Amino acid sequence: LMGPISRENYLNAKFESECYDDKYIESNLTTDILDFQKTVKMHVSQKEKAVSKILHKLKEIMDSFAIGGTLQLFGSYGCNLYLPWSDLDVVIVPGISNQSLPSNIQLLRKISLKLKATSNIISVCLEEDYIFPFIRFQTNEIYENFGVRLSIKDQSHNGLGVLEFMKGCLITYPILLPLNLVIKNLLKKLNYLYEKVRLNQIILFREA
C-alpha cells in the first residue's frame, strides 16, 4: 500500500517497535507451523537410529585404512534442521598425526571402493569436480534409504564453519528453527534443487 520499500528501510523498520521483536513473532507463529515442527520430530526418530548405524559402518571403514580422527555431522543433521527426506552430510576430520596419509582424493577413491563392496549400500559415486571432493552414496531400507555425502576436512572445507554459524543463529533467534523447516519443505514441494534449498537456508540465517 505504501509502495516499494528498499531493503535498507525494511531492515531499519523491522526494529522500530518492540512489538515486532523475535519473541513477539515466535509467540504469534501459526498453529500449523508449530504442528508441522512437532510432526517432523515424530517422523525422523527412526531416521536418527539409522544415522548411528551409518556412522558406525563408516568408522569401521576408517579403521580399516588406519585413518584415525573422527566423524562429524554438518548440514541439516548437524544443526537439527533436518526433514524426513534430508540427506546426511558427514566429514572425516583426520587426526593431527596422520600426515603420512594419501591425499584426500586418493583416500576417497579407496573409501569409495570399500563402500561399493558394502552390503545395504545400493549406489556409490565419487564427485571430484567440486570445491572439495566427496562421496555420494545411497543406502537401502535397512539404513532408512539415506542419501549420504562423505567428505574429508581440509582448508577448503567450510562445512563445519557454516555449522557453527548456523548453531549460533539458532541460539540467538530460536524462531529460525520452525521457519526453516517450513521453508525447506515448501521449496522441496515446488521441486527446487536441494542446492537452492540450502542456499535459501543460509540466506535466511544471514538476514537474522
| Beta fraction | 5-15%
Mean pLDDT: 79
Main pleated sheet = 5 strands, mixed
Cross-sheet strand order for the largest sheet: 1-2-5-4-3
Multimer state: single chain
Count every beta strand, where a strand is a DSSP E run of 2 or more residues: 5
Low-confidence stretches: 1-18, 193-197, 202-208
Radius of gyration: 20 Å
Helix content: 40-55%
Q: What is the N-to-C succession of helices and strands?
A: HHHHEHEHEEEHHH
Individual helix count: 9
Decide which structural class fits the backbone: alpha+beta
For the termini, the CA-CA separation is 25 Å
Q: Rough shape? A: globular
What does this molecule look like?
This protein is α+β, with helices and mostly antiparallel strands and 208 residues long. It is built from 9 helices and 5 strands. The radius of gyration is 20 Å and the shape is globular. The two termini are 25 Å apart.
Task: Please summarize what this structure is.
The chain is an alpha+beta fold. Helix content is about 50%, strand content about 15%. The protein has a five-stranded mixed beta sheet, with helices on both faces.
List the topology elements.
Layout: H1 7-13, H2 22-27, H3 31-43, H4 45-64, E1 70-74, H5 75-78, E2 88-93, H6 104-116, E3 121-127, E4 134-139, E5 147-152, H7 159-172, H8 176-189, H9 194-207
Parallel strand pairs: 2-5
Antiparallel strand pairs: 1-2, 3-4, 4-5
Helix pairs in contact: 3-8, 8-9
